[in-house]
Design goal:
Number of helices: 6
CATH topology: Rossmann fold
Order of helices and strands: HHHEHEEEHEHEE
Helix content: 25-40%
CATH superfamily: Vaccinia Virus protein VP39
CATH architecture: 3-Layer(aba) Sandwich
CATH class: Alpha Beta
Distance between the termini: 76 Å
Strand order of the largest sheet: 3-2-1-4-5-7-6
Shape: globular
Structural class: alpha/beta
Number of domains: 1
Number of strands: 7
Oligomer: single chain
Length: 211
Amino acid sequence: DDDDDIPQLSSHTLAALQEFYLEQQQREGMKTSQGFNQYSIGSIEENWQLSQFWYSDETASCLAKEAVLAAGKGGKIACVSAPSVYQKLKEQDGEDFSVCILEYDRRFSVYGEEFIFYDYNQPLNLPENLLPHSFDIVIADPPYLSEECLEKTAETIKYLTKGKILLCTGAIMEDQAAKHLGVKICKFTPKHSRNLANEFRCYVNYASGLD
């Protein structure tokens, strides 16, 4: 019989495989059924091809807290290529602020009307309802450590902000950050959930709580 040559899984292996698939289904079910999970850091996995590296939970919390304080009561916050800060802000139910996320990765469109597709190569290609100087603070994390990327992202930041800027990028970008945005390095050092080869820093143009 030809069937004799077909390898068969043992009953133990089959049971383990079924258990794995069941756990996977349960995890996916939790993501869709539990609202708080939708915003947790890592609910959308990093895509390294898009140069995505999520902040540690502690860093995202610190930056989100700073953004809320800087925006003030009823403030508007824009997160440009900084989805983990956006997610941490959304965990703060009941806080008096509004936030949107400008992001190239369309997976973040699950966040509905707060998601705005954004390509730094077209820095001012933004929806008409995104009015100039309408955000109390803009938090930005340009995806690449290049002056071209920073310069183009800076156009977007300057269009959106009423004045306050919180920039997160490599320490090697300090001179360019000052040149294009007038921001200065902070004492606070952001960390990522995975260690990066390049030293990372925060920059601001106002008196912040990050020093």
